[in-house]
Automatic annotation (TrEMBL):
FIST domain span: 28-226
Domain FIST C-domain: 227-374
Origin: domain of life: Bacteria
Protein name: FIST N-terminal domain-containing protein
Entry-linked Pfam families: FIST, FIST_C
InterPro entries: FIST_C, FIST_domain_N
Length: 395
């Protein structure tokens, strides 16, 4: 098993795929991952991939501003591919559902899994990995359906499709088609071993409260007070400065909302929630579902933490590689909001990742929601997170 990546900044989808195809080998190619900025027409992109790599299953999604590989941080317009090369008894299969054709989230996920199992010719089997890409909105229910379908917590790595300015210019693609409101999955039955990592990389502050009124992805009240006022007060007290409503969103990537996902050695670990906008009623609209009665806290992360956390998540995932076998490649999902806050400092993230991966291939889109498997085994959806899967040579 091995991996190769390719990058093109050509705006014409057909010409770009010709360039990308010249950088990849065809022999033993069994699967592709494709990440691209909003500058491309997804339907044309799918047609070009199918023409260049006939019969090869692939999935992908749009990425915020750019994509990162072992060759650097590539600012858009850009299309990147990761070719996965494997041999028998491996199998890879994809599925894609548009929500317009299925208004039940659970059933949509089940149908997508069944498509992918059929595509891989592995009906009735449990994969080693699920790669999930969806448009923002229903990620938690998709994860629940995956866990229920397989009856065990199969490792998930995923990212919610993104655009450059949160204007719904996002999309997902696969060899099954295109969706602007749906989900796609690729099931991996690889010949080699893999490990996963999923982490927030932020620290809790002393400010916490309970959600007392909410609906799906909106918090209306915290401790009986308007959520907007509480959130702004928390930031003002922690940062020691007055913050206007207009200025508050400059601080979101620095001060997300945290919820305890579990504990290890009596120490909590968190999944993060990214506020999207204020509501007229004084609520906070989010990129993840919440429930009444949940305890939340204000989280904080310095630039230094944001720079080092991606490589730290990869390192933590690789600690499960108990025999220190040769790393073959990795898929890394990085939050788009964190990338935007880092600005030019994203180059330091790249340098740390390259070092941690020992120069081996990796691909990293910037998403508006991250899915992964926590250290205690549970799969979850969060924001401002880092998720990774590392493939390595078997003993």
């Amino acid at each position: 098993m091995r991996f190769l990546t390719s990058v093109s900044h050509v705006l014409d989808e057909k010409v770009a795929l010709t360039e990308l195809g010249e950088q990849l080998l065809q022999e033993d190619l069994v699967s592709l991952l494709c990440y691209y900025t909003e500058d491309y027409v997804p339907e044309k992109l799918v047609t070009a991939i199918q023409s260049t790599f006939p019969g090869i299953p692939f999935i992908g999604c749009s990425s915020c501003k750019g994509v990162m590989t072992e060759t650097g941080f590539h600012l858009g317009p850009v299309i990147t591919l990761m070719g996965i090369y494997d041999k028998h008894p491996c199998a890879y299969g994809t599925g894609l559902i548009d929500m317009a054709a299925c208004d039940d989230n659970h059933q949509a996920a089940i149908k997508t899994i069944e498509q992918a199992l059929y595509s891989a010719d592995r009906i009735g089997e449990v994969p080693s990995l699920v790669v999930l890409h969806a448009t923002p909105g229903n990620e938690e229910s998709f994860i629940d359906a995956i866990d229920q379908k397989f009856g065990t917590q199969v490792p998930i790595i995923g990212g919610s499709a993104a655009d450059n300015h949160i204007e719904h210019q996002w999309s997902i693609i696969s060899d099954k088609g295109v969706s602007y409101d749906g989900l796609t999955m690729q099931l991996f039955f690889p010949s080699k071993q893999l490990t996963t990592g999923f982490s927030a990389g932020y620290s809790p502050t002393e400010f916490e409260g309970m959600i007392t009124k909410s609906s799906e992805r909106t918090i209306y009240e915290i401790d009986g007070k308007p959520a907007k006022d509480v959130y702004r007060e928390w930031i003002q007290q922690h940062a020691g400065e007055q913050i206007s409503e207009q200025y508050i969103f400059d601080h979101i990537a620095r001060f997300p909302i945290g919820r305890i996902a579990g504990t290890i050695y009596d120490q909590p670990y968190y999944k993060l929630t990214h506020p999207l906008q204020l509501t007229p009623e004084g609520g906070l609209e989010l990129f993840a579902n919440v429930e009444d009665g949940e305890r939340i806290c204000l989280m904080t992360g310095s630039l230094e933490q944001l720079i080092s956390r991606a490589s730290r998540v990869v390192k933590e995932a690789n600690t499960k590689n108990y025999h220190e076998s040769l790393v073959l490649g990795a898929i890394i999902i990085h939050c788009g909001g964190s990338m935007l806050r880092l600005g030019a400092e994203i180059e330091k993230v790249y340098a740390k990742l390259l070092s941690q991966m020992n120069g081996q291939p990796f691909i990293c889109p910037f998403t508006f929601g991250e899915q992964g498997r926590f250290i205690c085994g549970e799969n979850a959806h969060g924001n401002l997170m880092i998720s990774s899967v590392i493939f390595y040579e078997s003993e």
